[in-house]
Amino acid sequence: MKEVFARDLLHQEVVASNEPVFLTGWVKTIRRGAHFSFLELNDGTDLRNIQIVLGEKLPNYQAVTKLNLSATIKVTGQIALTPKAQQPLEIHADQIDILGQSAADYPLQKKQHSLEFLRTQAHLRPRTATFYAVFKIRSLAAMAVHEFFQKRHFVYVNTPIITSSDSEGAGEMFKVTALDLNHLPQDAQGQVDFQQDFFKKPTNLTVSGQLPDEGFTLAFRDTYTFGPAFRAENSHTGRHTAEFWMIEPEMAFVDLAAMLPVEEQLIKYVINQVFLKGQEELTFLNDNVDSDLIAKLKATTTSDFAVISYDRAIALLQAAPQTFTYPVKWGMGLQSEHERYLCEQVFQRPTFVTDYPEAIKAFYMRRNDDGKTVAAADLLVPGIGELVGGSQREERPDILAEKIASAQLNAAEYQWYLDLRRYGETVHSGFGLGFERLIMFLTGMTNIRDVVPYPRTPGEAEF
Ligand code: 4AD
Ligand code: MG
């Protein structure tokens, strides 16, 4: 007997025949009637359910129609085309095998649940249509990112998760140790003796793969990472998680201006791929989560991103008809309210802000000739704010060494990074795109916790 899947039934021309088929899946709803009942089955291969028609002649009709939601069954029956109905076809069941019961207290009963409640059910929420759509798009987007870079011959590099240097120099790291925290060994100065730790030195979870990636860029020319990053920043926002995924391309012989089009093309490519392969999911999210979603994504692929300097951004913010919680002055870091004003009110599309003050940006960014700004660019997008941070890298060894010192970083830890400038330096540039924020943009979800399978935020590491 032929096994069939919803994905194929709903997307291909299916010819009804008398040959029986079978499919397996989870019970989504049952509408009971006197002589027959309708059961909606989801088999995991499609956002949409398959309607199963159950006649009272089924030997276990009573047992099947009393199944709790999310029980698993095997349906054997005939495909019947239903061109006049909402769904293109249904299955007339000849036999139902009950594979797995579901307890009566299944938390996702058939009613609208809040996103907050569903966060407490992170192990079950992928069974809802909303999260099915979000995580399907997440998967499609990940593949699209790889395709984009592979088509351009970028080499994919897996940079280490456990590191001894702080790539961002911001000190927001989770420590990694094999020491017994209740009996820490001490050195002569009374400090923790990391000589006795696993790596014989302090280590942490990486905040970014950029620095080790640069080593590969100076061999392979164009490289990218796509992996997890960890930040112990105590941010309670809808845009920060302690564990997130970042895409970090790095390009040799490329300056800031030449890099920006790569960012723009990447984002447009991913959107187009999701339109191509996730049409059903996008439509569902547009109907149920954000009614502007499809229009916003379409507009993003057809318009040029705006580019303004930090100086101009400050001037625009100072001239804004609204007041901000954080007053605007040259030298400050842009807060989310400022970022969103610029890309949502002024430009109404993704907006690059370039040439930030050196003092507020990471040590590896290239100092501009004015001596006070760096060749950096953040990409701000409507609804989110900063989606990408990038820069041209400081390739001049003396200036880089000075910047490492003035950031009060331990020079010895960065010697290998300085080596990259001593042995064949070149202009190079790269950026980091926060994958979760991209998924927020692609799905219309407004809280980062709803685009991560099992979110990790301050005070929360359930599941
Ligand atoms: O701007 P960030 O900190 O830049 C870097 O890490 C560079 N090393 C990137 C590079 O040039 N290779 O982070 C880059 C992006 C941000 O724009 C944001 O989208 C995302 O990573 N991001 C976070 N996403 C979720 N939660 C957090 N706590 C994030 N911190 C950064
Ligand atoms: Mg940043």
What would you say this structure looks like, in words?
It is built from 13 helices and 17 strands. The protein is of the alpha+beta class and 463 residues long. The protein has an eight-stranded mixed sheet, with helices on both faces. A five-stranded mixed β-barrel has the order 2-3-4-6-5. The protein has a three-stranded antiparallel sheet with strand order 8-10-9, with no helix packed on it. Helix 4 packs across helix 6, helix 4 packs across helix 13 and helix 6 packs across helix 8. The protein is elongated, with a radius of gyration of 27 Å. The mean pLDDT is 96. The site of magnesium ion has 3 residues, from strand 16.
Structure described in brief:
The chain has 463 residues and is an alpha+beta fold. It is 30% helix and 23% strand.
Keywords:
23% strand; binds 4-amino-1,4-dioxobutan-2-aminium adenosine-5'-monophosphate; 463 residues; alpha+beta; elongated; single chain
- Give the helix proportion (percent range): 25-40%
Termini separation comes to 39 Å
Protein structure class = alpha+beta
Strand content: 15-25%
The low-pLDDT segments are: none
Element order: H for helix, E for strand = EHEEEHEEHHEEEEHEEHHHEHHEEEHHEH
Which value, in Å, is the CA radius of gyration? 27 Å
Main β-sheet: number of strands, strand sense, barrel status? 8 strands, mixed
Q: Please state the average pLDDT score.
A: 96
Q: How many DSSP helices? A: 13
Secondary structure tally: strands: 17
| Distinct small molecules | 4-amino-1,4-dioxobutan-2-aminium adenosine-5'-monophosphate, magnesium ion
Query: Which sequence of strands runs across the widest sheet?
Result: 7-11-12-17-16-15-14-13
Q: How does the overall form come out from the CA principal axes?
A: elongated
